[in-house]
């Protein structure tokens, strides 16, 4: 089934993503991405566990359709946690806010988890490039993963942090 799926995706790539003289490059790229997402979803639907085919098709289409909204809401959750961390300005609360931001973002589905992963990795990369400690970055990433995987952010909550957070 994996070979069949790869073949279907390859054929879709060639038929939809081949550049054409009458299409603008941006529209071609957008059509290509949408087509590949649709084909990949369809392939995963057809090769998935036994379930009525129509239900699998409907659920895959819903997931593709809802992903951008989940990314947006997950990004909002990460921004809120960052703003709360800046507002609290509380020594030792960094890991708590990392964990909480990822936890809240992941509650918004696969798109929220994706947003949390991208934002967390980008943040740690910028910290590393600015010369902040690698061990601190590793501890931040541990807190990020903990929250993103559904762990209780209060594990990292420092004593005395106001209840507001």
UniProtKB/TrEMBL annotation:
<dbReference type="InterPro" id="IPR000096">
    <property type="entry name" value="Serum_amyloid_A"/>
</dbReference>
<comment type="similarity">
    <text>Belongs to the SAA family.</text>
</comment>
<protein>
    <recommendedName>
        <fullName>Serum amyloid A protein</fullName>
    </recommendedName>
</protein>
<dbReference type="GO" id="GO:0005576">
    <property type="term" value="C:extracellular region"/>
</dbReference>
<dbReference type="Pfam" id="PF00277">
    <property type="entry name" value="SAA"/>
</dbReference>
<feature type="region of interest" description="Disordered">
    <location>
        <begin position="128"/>
        <end position="165"/>
    </location>
</feature>
<dbReference type="InterPro" id="IPR052464">
    <property type="entry name" value="Synovial_Prolif_Regulator"/>
</dbReference>
């Amino acid at each position: 089934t994996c070979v069949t799926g790869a073949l279907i995706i390859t054929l879709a790539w060639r038929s939809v993503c081949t550049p054409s003289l009458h299409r603008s490059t941006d529209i071609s790229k957008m059509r290509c991405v949408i087509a590949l997402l649709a084909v990949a979803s369809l392939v995963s639907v057809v090769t998935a566990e036994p379930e009525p085919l129509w239900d699998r098709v409907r659920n895959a289409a819903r997931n593709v359709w809802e992903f951008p909204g989940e990314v947006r809401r997950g990004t909002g959750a990460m921004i809120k946690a960052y703003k709360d961390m800046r507002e609290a300005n509380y020594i030792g609360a960094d890991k708590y806010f990392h964990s909480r931001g990822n936890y809240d973002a992941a509650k918004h589905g696969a798109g929220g988890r994706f947003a949390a992963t991208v934002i967390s990795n980008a943040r740690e990369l910028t910290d590393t490039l600015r010369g902040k400690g690698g061990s601190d970055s590793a501890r931040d990433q541990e807190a990020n993963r903990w929250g993103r995987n559904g762990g209780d952010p209060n594990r990292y909550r420092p004593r005395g942090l106001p209840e507001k957070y």
